[in-house]
Amino acid sequence: MIVVNTDFVAGWEIVEVLGLVRGNTVRAKHVGKDIMARFTQIFGGEIEGYTEMLSEAREEALSRMASAAERLGADAVINARLMTSGVMDNAAEVMAYGTAVRLAPVESE
Questions:
Q1: Residues 105 and 10: beta-carbon distance below 8 Å
Q2: Which domains does the chain show, CATH number per domain?
Q3: d(CA 76, CA 6)
C-alpha cells in the first residue's frame, strides 16, 4: 500500500477516488512508566516511555488506515495526515486519515 502526504503519487495517475479512510488507537502507559515520567518531568529530559507509546500508536493508526483502504480495493492513500489528542489523563488517541484511491501507471508519450 502506498501512503503519501501529497495529493499525487509520482509516476501514477489517480483513476478513482474511493473516499476517506481512517485508523485510530488510544494508548496509555502502565503506572510504572507513568511514575518514571513524573521523575523526568521534575529533572527534565525526554520522557522515553511516552515517546515510545506515541510512536507505536502512530504506526498502529497508519496500519489500520491502510487496512481500511485495502478493504475498499485502494492502491494508495493520498493526503495522509496524523492527529493526536488527549482523551484522559495519561492517555492519547492517535488518528491517521487520508483519501483512498485507485491508481494506474502514467503512460509515457
A1: no
A2: 2-105 (3.30.110.70)
A3: 11
DSSP string computed for the chain: -EE-SSSS-TTEEEEEEEEEEEEEEEEE--HHHHHHHHHHHHH-S--HHHHHHHHHHHHHHHHHHHHHHHHTT-SEEEEEEEEEEEEETTEEEEEEEEEEEEEEEPPP-
pLDDT tier for residue 106 given thresholds of 50, 70 and 90: very high
Of 66, 82, 81, 72, the C-alpha closest to 102 is 72
Query: 5-56: per-residue pLDDT in tens?
Result: 999 999 999 999 999 999 999 988 655 555 555 555 566 667 677 788 889 9
Cβ contact 24:82 at 8 Å = no
Q: Which amino acid is at 47?
A: I
The most distant pair of C-alpha atoms in the chain lies apart, rounded to whole Å, by 63
Q: Please say whether the beta carbons of 94 and 24 come within 8 A.
A: yes
Cα–Cα distance for residue pair 95/25, rounded to 1 Å: 7
